[in-house]
Amino acid sequence: MMEQNKKNLRKQVAVYEKSSLPASIWQLLNTLIPFFGLWVLAYNSLSISYILTIGISVIAAGFLVRTFIIFHDCCHHSFFRNRKANAILGTITGILTVFPYNQWQHDHSVHHATSSNLDKRGTGDIWVLTVDEYLASTPWERLKYRMYRNPLVMFGLGPIYVFLLKNRFNRNGARLNERINTYVTNVGILTISAVFCLTLGWKQFLLVQGPIFLISGSLGIWLFYVQHTFEDSYFEEDKHWEYVKAAVEGSSFYKLPKIFQWLTGNIGYHHVHHLSPRVPNYKLEQAHNNTLPLQNVPTITLATSLSSLKFRLWDEQNKKFVGFKEIKVLVKKQKDYLRPEKA
């Protein structure tokens, strides 16, 4: 991609960066009101059938994912034009989604600045090893990586560890305002949980909130995973890494059915979001449709995205993701080479 073309592409998308107050308010209303309504409905359904409760919780989880997208936009200062308004709403929605606003904003900003950069991995992204790194790892490191990339661990235990445990603590080097925001978020979560447990009963609270949390958490990790883990993605060493290429080639266009696209706040247009994080979620589709060069970005569908589960390692030689099975021969050769010869 020529340098001039990159500049033009960013300029074309930049015109969609201004948020609309009526659109933002409307999204708040059509997200939070249904979420709270479904939560109450799920609670009332406990006396009828827990299967019904689970069914309602699945829908409520979709609205919690949509709430997270609002939180996500606030972190990019794209939901409102006023920074303070973004910070206030971001903290409130962060309590609802159990994410500390300032802390996640920092890590996510690093993710945007380093996405697909092989020399700057480790903050705000999913753990990715190259084939060579995996072959050079110890058996214990390989086991840890295999466990981490196991779907049951990543999408099952992942939400519990990251959202409930990791998010409760400040990172090393966090500034005072970030630390205070984490404490405020933690107190907010504890207060709301305590009120619900005391008024509704702790069992009833967990029976409703538990499924909503686990389902929305798994969906959130899945969305983040699939938007950067597809066969012909983009990864480069720092000296060859380019921001625009990382955005349009290293972030997928996840073409979802309209209802899922709506519930996930258009985050499937991830290439547009990485190209210009200041574009509010409700303008991402418009930016994609009206920007001709973006029509040819890597596209995955609900069906084809499932194949990403087999992609575990980045093959630097062939510039694509591969699975453990595809490097089985290399691992065997390595073991044979290291095995001492019999006398």
Overview of this protein structure:
The chain is mainly alpha-helical. It is built from 15 helices and 5 strands. The strands form 2 sheets. A 3-stranded mixed β-sheet has the order 1-4-5. It has a two-stranded parallel ribbon with strand order 2-3. Strand 4 and strand 5 (320-322) form a beta hairpin. It is globular. It starts with a helix and ends in a 5-residue tail after the last helix. The model has no long low-confidence stretch (mean pLDDT 93).
Write the layout of secondary structure elements.
Elements: H1 3-14, H2 21-44, H3 50-75, H4 83-96, H5 101-114, E1 129-130, H6 131-136, H7 139-149, H8 151-165, H9 176-200, H10 202-226, H11 243-250, E2 253-255, H12 258-263, H13 270-275, H14 284-289, E3 299-301, E4 313-315, E5 320-322, H15 328-338
Parallel strand pairs: 1-4, 2-3
Antiparallel strand pairs: 4-5
Strand order of the main beta sheet, please?
A: 1-4-5
How large is the share of residues in beta strands?
under 5%
* Helix-strand pattern: HHHHHEHHHHHHEHHHEEEH
Instruction: Note poorly predicted spans.
Output: none
**How large is the radius of gyration?**
22 Å
Can you summarize the main beta sheet? 3 strands, mixed
User: Into which percent range does the helicity of residues fall?
Assistant: 55-70%
Q: Provide mean pLDDT, rounded.
A: 93
What would you call the structural class?
mainly alpha
Treating each run of at least 4 consecutive H or I residues as one helix, how many helices? Answer: 15
